[in-house]
Design a protein that fits this description.
The chain is α+β, with helices and mostly antiparallel strands. Helices cover 35% and strands 26% of the residues.
Length: 279
């Protein structure tokens, strides 16, 4: 395999922009939030496990979306180096072929290229590509020495665990108060929460987002698309956070799921979810 295959496959001149991590209004692919949490907190083995469990080895758009959103949380949390190492370990050890990894970085590039980049975001992207390149060339570390969830190791700190996860009110009407998300975390950790749209209408052979215009006379269908993400820095015990207004105002009438996973010193938690409706 040629040196810098992963970097060159993305395309000359866009290595920094391609995988630099910047905020986006919406995600385009449904992603296991446990994968994002693992990458964001630097849990390489946890990321590899989430890739295998989710069957994401041949889904570059899903992997690229996960890299993008995990990087947002990692840069904000000062975990740039850990994030890059987790990406470089998770992709090859999650049985992702090198060409799919190339496409995943390209998918992240498509999301990031239209946004202004900070120096820290550029560094996160460049480091993730460089370390992943080395890993596929067999020049990366042979053993994992970073954060590891308890599912991968019988020793070390425990991974966080989320419970009692709910949103109230569960039916959002025009003029109703902004809903509160409440949950219990077993430890101080960072939780990534994703809003998934579950409602759609049939347009030909496709299931498209439901709206006042598309819903008239159309058959309903089920879909699962991430339409927003946000993070919360938890304390051990009970936690409460408002659904961001920037996300709520984009939600059309329909059914939604709120999915969350936490990342702490011992690794990432399992995902938890609850459902709500926009009337």
């Amino acid at each position: 395999m040629n040196r810098n295959l992963v970097v060159r496959a993305i395309g000359p001149g866009i290595v920094a922009a391609a995988v630099a991590i910047t905020p986006a209004a919406h995600a385009s692919a449904a992603v296991d939030d446990a994968l994002i949490a693992a990458l964001a907190h630097g849990d390489g083995p946890g990321a590899a496990r989430a890739i295998v469990i989710g069957g994401f080895q041949s889904r570059p758009s899903v992997l690229g979306d996960a890299i993008f959103h995990a990087g947002i949380a990692a840069v904000d949390g000062g975990l740039t180096d850990q994030f890059a190492k987790a990406v470089a370990w998770g992709l090859p050890h999650g049985d992702v072929p090198v060409l799919v990894a190339n496409e995943a970085f390209g998918a992240a590039a498509g999301t990031a290229a239209s946004h202004g980049l900070t120096a820290g975001q550029i560094r996160a992207g460049v480091e993730a590509v460089s370390l992943t390149d080395e890993a596929y060339l067999g020049q990366g570390p042979k053993t994992w020495t970073g954060v590891t969830s308890t599912a991968n190791s019988s020793s070390g700190p425990a991974a966080p665990a989320l419970s009692h996860f709910r949103i109230a009110p569960a039916v959002l009407r025009k003029g109703s108060p902004n809903p509160t998300v409440s949950f219990t975390d077993s430890q101080a950790a960072t939780t990534t929460l994703g809003v998934h749209s579950l409602s759609g209408v049939r347009k030909g052979s496709r299931c498209v987002p439901a709206s006042a215009k598309t819903a008239r006379g159309s058959r309903s269908c089920s879909r699962d698309v991430v339409v927003g993400r946000f993070t919360h820095h938890d304390t051990a015990g009970s936690n409460k956070v408002l659904l961001p207004r920037s996300i709520r105002r984009t939600l059309s009438p329909g059914r939604y799921a709120l999915v969350a996973a936490a990342a702490g010193p011992g690794g990432s938690s399992a995902s938890v979810s609850t459902r709500f409706t926009v009337a």
